[in-house]
Amino acid sequence: MRFFLDSANPEEGRRVKDWGLLDGVSLNPALAAETGREYRQAIREMAAICDGPISVEITSADAKGMYKEARECHKLGKEIVIKLPMTTDGMKVLRLLADEQIPTNVSLCFSAAQALIAAKAGAAYLSPFVGRLDEIGSIGMDLIEQVIRIYDNYGFQTLVVVDSVRNPVHVLDAALMGADVATMPFAILEQLFRHPLTEVGLSRVVRETPAATKKQI
């Protein structure tokens, strides 16, 4: 399973890359604004750091605006993937971009029926927001399980991205179900390293290491 960093912060991108875990990046204008960067500047910076896909959210609401914005964003990096909403206009633009071999990522997907439509339209990625479903009393990972089953039934090549990850359990469940990608903020990715027994073990090693050895280290 691949890890996509949900961030527009270049420092976070570099740190995750140093860990060998930066398989891709997911960006939107709100994330860019949090870092004080203009959106396209943030896209260029993250594309220069990451060798994998850079999933870029389109902000236009109508088909004409989406298509124009998508083509402009695609020029900002060789691995740019255009994130489109699960709407009729979004699917119309998806088909146009597919004809031009521009990869797309369908977002705002909250049902298995929507996921089926996205795959039939030719989406390269599908990003259900599991955290948002959890927040309204649904179980977001149930949707991921359904989507994976449907895609396996028909041999769809659309990759399943677990998005809106809220905790490490979402990541673990995604891996157990066979999802292709988990998109998460830096804080969640960092949490994956942690376990209380690891901390106990490290403190014991430090405590039991002779002072002379510590000095040499």
Low-confidence spans: none
| CATH architecture classification | Alpha-Beta Barrel
Distance between the termini: 35 Å
Oligomer: single chain
The total number of structural domains is 1
Going by helix content, strand content and strand pairing, the class is alpha/beta
- Give me the side-by-side strand order of the main sheet: 1-2-3-4-5-6-7-8
Q: If you compute it from the alpha carbons, what radius of gyration comes out, rounded to the nearest whole angstrom?
A: 19 Å
Average of pLDDT: 95
What CATH calls the topology is TIM Barrel
Q: Concise description?
A:
This protein is an alpha/beta fold. It has helices at residues 10-18, 29-34, 39-49, 63-74, 88-99, 112-121, 130-135, 140-154, 168-177, 186-191, 196-208, 211-216, and strands at residues 2-6, 24-27, 54-57, 80-85, 104-109, 125-128, 159-162, 181-184.
Q: Would you give an account of this structure?
A:
- The protein has helices spanning 10-18, 29-34, 39-49, 63-74, 88-99, 112-121, 130-135, 140-154, 168-177, 186-191, 196-208, 211-216; strands spanning 2-6, 24-27, 54-57, 80-85, 104-109, 125-128, 159-162, 181-184.
- It is α/β, with parallel strands linked by helices and 217 residues long.
- The chain has a single domain, classed as TIM Barrel.
- Helix 5 (88-99) links the parallel strand 4 and strand 5 (104-109).
- Helix 1 (10-18) runs parallel beside helix 3, helix 4 crosses helix 5 (88-99) and helix 6 (112-121) packs across helix 8 (140-154).
